[in-house]
Design brief:
The complex is a heterodimer. By secondary structure, chain A is mainly alpha-helical. Chain A has 13 helices and two strands. The longest helix of chain B is centred in the middle third of the chain and has 26 residues. The chains are: A mainly alpha, B mainly alpha.
């Protein structure tokens, strides 16, 4: 403790060795500034996605067609708020505050997942989000349970358990529609048609255009490349779509015996970049609602803070 | 069921993340209670989605729009205090078909009341603005509280017997929140008890229209 502080080089060597040995980096450990910054960016973006992601689904809570489905959907949206809380806590272990991160989200200086800029137009969209969007999220997130940063990895273990539950519920919702009336089946197919490509975009840009990938993989924050995970997701979805009795909207989708994978058609990266740039169908609406909730809630947070201060002071005087 | 629906409208709009979780949690508890109660009478979805406004028997208090956070909390304070007293009574009556439901619900409702109490204290004894908003909310909803104590057909407890306990409990929370019980009658222009007779306030029809439209658009479908 009192000996001379080791040089940064030595600290870095300890860090690299820990990462190489698959040990977890913990909040008090030394870590490179860039590693810290990458994690803050990624965890914050992940937390923001949970919070913004409540909106497209909450859009259907008041219109859910049965009380059972309504209860499931409410529980899911509640879980998402909980996931946001875990993730903000994980980000806070890196020396940043939740308020600061929320301010950045509201100011458009931090991102959230592009997928939540698409609208939920029918009840079947709730199922498509569960099956495809949560499915893609799980494919991305399961490897994060082994991420080199301990608090993030532990948050992911809890989140993945709940997410896979949501994913099964989404699948089951679509199955009920697919096997229901003709109108319900059509509703399910339409939702899958609209959510398929945006879900594939959730894995991020192709490997040769992914700016952060190489470093994140070297640091063992990421374990697999974007394209690897995307391929894994497509391979999982194809048989699931078949058992749902629904088709995936891609004429180029077919099994490739040689590769042992499904080939699939080109992704519209122009659309992806437009959505990231803020020009998706709901970007404006999502961020406006988030800001509005925050601004309209300011007086409530101020009241809670004022009350806590008053009563902390009383308590302090009483015990002084 | 109606109050649960109203609380569900908060999803994605709450002032802090912790309240997203808390309000959804309360909404889910209430929905769970409603589903058990409706199933005692018939098919829960038929009762929820295919009755028209005049056939609903909920008290008018729970159908009131959310308003600001203070309105939601005032509605929660009034209603959860009543529910807790009612369920305690019902749980104690071993003969009643409501006893098992009430025994489970009373634990949930105690949490709801605790949540409402804590927010009433924070808002009442917070800032000048939060105090004023809480005051306005309590006043605005006061006239819907009389109905809570009107007799309900088929209920083995006379709600009138709950009034004293309710007044004592609410008065105590308000006193600690530096607030006082609203003045004026506990009934509005309508005779207290109108909700129980299927006479509702205007926002309720719109709420049902939104709630029921998808179910009604696909007659006979299963979801």
């Amino acid at each position: 403790m009192t000996t001379t502080a080791p040089e940064t080089g030595a600290l870095e060597a300890v860090f690299e060795a820990a990462v190489a040995a698959d040990e977890r980096i913990e909040p008090r450990d030394w870590m490179p500034d860039a590693y810290r910054a990458t994690l803050v960016r990624q965890i914050a973006q992940h937390a923001h996605s949970e919070i913004i992601g409540m909106q497209p689904e909450a859009n259907w809570i008041t219109r859910a067609p049965s009380l059972r489905r309504k209860a499931i959907l409410m529980a899911k949206v509640q879980d998402e708020a909980g996931h946001g809380l875990y993730l903000y806590s994980a980000a806070e272990t890196l020396g940043t505050g939740r308020d600061e991160l929320l301010d950045k989200l509201h100011a458009g200086r931090q991102r959230y997942s592009s997928i939540f800029n698409y609208p939920t137009l029918t009840w079947a969209d709730v199922g498509a989000i569960g099956w495809l969007v949560d499915g893609a999220a799980i494919t991305n997130q399961v490897p994060l349970c082994r991420c080199s940063y301990g608090p993030y990895a532990r948050a992911m273990v809890r989140i993945c358990k709940e997410e896979s539950f949501h994913q099964r519920q989404g699948y089951e919702l679509l199955l009920a529609l697919s096997r229901g009336t003709e109108a319900q089946h059509a509703m399910a197919q339409d939702a899958v048609d609209r959510w398929w490509w945006p879900s594939l975009m959730m894995f991020g840009p192709p490997d040769d255009e992914s700016a952060h990938s190489a470093q994140s993989m070297a640091w063992k924050i990421k374990r697999h490349s974007n394209d690897e995970l995307r391929q894994r997701f497509v391979d999982i979805c194809v048989p699931q779509a078949e058992s749902l009795g629904l088709t995936l909207p891609d004429p180029d989708l077919r099994w490739n015996e040689e590769r042992g994978h499904h080939d699939f058609g080109p992704i519209d990266w122009d659309e992806f970049h437009e959505v990231l740039r803020g020009n998706g169908p709901c970007n404006e609406q999502r961020i406006t609602q988030r800001r509005k909730a925050h601004e309209e809630g300011a007086w409530v947070r101020e009241a809670a803070a004022a009350y806590a201060t008053k009563h902390a002071a009383e308590h302090g005087e009483a015990t002084a | 069921m109606v109050l649960s629906h109203r609380l569900g409208e908060w999803a994605g709009h709450a002032p802090v993340l912790e309240e997203e979780v808390a309000l959804a949690n309360i909404a889910l508890d209430l929905l769970g209670q409603a589903r058990v109660l409706l199933s005692l009478v018939g098919d829960e979805d038929e009762l929820a989605y295919l009755r028209e406004e005049r056939a609903f028997r909920n008290v008018q208090l729970v159908e009131q729009p959310n308003g600001d956070f203070a309105h939601t909390i005032a509605r929660q304070l009034y209603f959860s205090t009543y529910q807790q007293l009612l369920y305690e009574r019902l749980a104690g009556d071993g003969e009643s078909p409501f006893a098992p439901v009430a025994a489970k619900a009373v634990k949930e409702v105690a949490y709801h009341r605790d949540h409402a109490e804590h927010w009433t204290l924070r808002l009442g004894d917070g800032t000048a603005e939060s105090h004023a908003r809480m005051r306005r909310a309590l006043d605005a909803l006061w006239r819907f509280t009389g109905e809570l104590f009107e007799p309900v057909e088929g209920l083995p407890v006379d709600p009138a017997a709950l009034r004293d306990g309710w007044l004592t409990s609410v008065t105590d929370v308000l006193r600690r929140a530096t607030l006082t019980l609203p003045e004026g009658p506990q009934a509005g222009a309508w005779t207290a008890g109108a909700g129980r007779q299927g006479i509702h306030t205007e926002p309720f029809g719109r709420m049902l229209a939104e709630m029921q439209h998808l179910h009604r658009s696909h007659p006979g479908a299963t979801w």
